[in-house]
Design goal:
Oligomer: single chain
Strand content: 5-15%
Order of helices and strands: HEEHEHEHEHHEHHEHEHEHEH
Length: 302
């Protein structure tokens, strides 16, 4: 057996089996709150921490999925210039899940995806869990994080006219960054969602061709330009007759970890749409609050 394959297999067994099992048998402390683990915990993180995650609830923007907690945050998605009467009418529908709501940013900014949904707010416990997952290299956290997204997706499917997706795609990392980290955090989550939902996961459908500056290191107004032209579909780098069939006419579920400005997922969606995707629905673990979107301060932000 190739030594590289052998050591990769050993590492996966350690991260996905040995560490979780040992954490269950010999619990010590929760890496998030640093409190002793009680009898009930999931993947080494205490139940209190999982419960403390700020889940995003209605009302949300029907485009980017950001919470709209107060009247000034939004205006009607349609007939937004029809005056105060229409705006007040929309306010009365704010808790109606079928109300068509678009936030101020989405009214002025063009996103190439059709809809985006996030499970929780990128703060506190959820932010720390994502940090541990990505930079602490705790790959086994992909499973409970994927389960959170499955819950959010299940609720969303009840509101959709179309109740299925044809293909799941994770936002790709550049090969240098993926090699340095050891894994693509979005792909591991996408793979678990694919197994549970029975939907195919496309790993080689789209790739990142430019090793651009990490979005987290840039202010919001620089991020959109930073990701232009960084993605490419397989139809462009390998001209095969059946390549386009993997995307053309398909409803795509695009997975990423965090929605901050939406620049990365919008550019990825643009490339998928150009390759013939019928619909791109974005699903992320977390969405940064408004006061973080414009500063570029989120250390894991996209």
């Amino acid at each position: 057996m190739n030594s590289k394959i052998f050591f990769s297999a050993v590492r996966l067994i350690e991260e996905y089996f040995f560490v979780p099992v040992m954490s269950f048998i010999f619990p010590s402390e929760c890496p998030v709150c640093m409190e002793p683990l009680g009898e009930y915990h999931s993947r080494g993180i205490c139940l209190d921490c999982w419960i403390s995650i700020k889940v995003i609830r209605e009302p949300v923007c029907m485009k980017c999925g950001i919470p709209m907690k107060s009247p000034p945050d939004f205006m009607p998605a349609e007939d937004s210039e029809s005056g105060e009467a229409a705006w007040c009418e929309e306010l009365e529908k704010v808790h109606n899940k079928t109300a068509n709501r678009i936030c101020g940013r989405c009214q002025t900014k063009r996103y190439h995806f059709d809809r985006a949904l996030s499970f929780g707010e990128y703060s506190g416990t959820l932010r720390e869990i994502i940090r541990l997952y990505k930079f602490g290299k705790k790959r086994y956290l992909s499973v409970p994080l994927a389960e959170l997204l499955l819950k959010a997706l299940k609720m969303e499917m009840k509101r959709r006219e179309s109740s299925h997706f044809d293909l799941i795609i994770a936002v790709p990392l550049h090969r240098k960054r993926e090699r340095a980290r050891g894994f693509n955090q979005s792909f591991l989550i996408a793979r678990h969602i694919g197994k549970k939902s029975g939907v195919d996961v496309g790993k080689q459908v789209i790739r990142r061709i430019k090793d651009s500056i990490p979005q987290s290191e840039l202010p919001a107004d620089k991020r959109e330009k930073n990701v232009i032209g960084v993605f490419e579909t397989k139809t462009l780098w390998k001209m095969r007759r059946n390549s386009r069939k993997k995307i053309s006419g398909k409803r795509i579920l695009l997975i990423d970890d965090i929605f901050t400005t939406g620049a990365t997922i919008s550019e990825c969606s643009r490339v998928l749409k150009r390759a013939g995707a019928k619909e791109v629905f974005v699903l992320t673990i977390a969405h940064t609050p408004w006061n973080s979107n414009d500063t570029g301060s989120g250390i894991l932000a996209h």
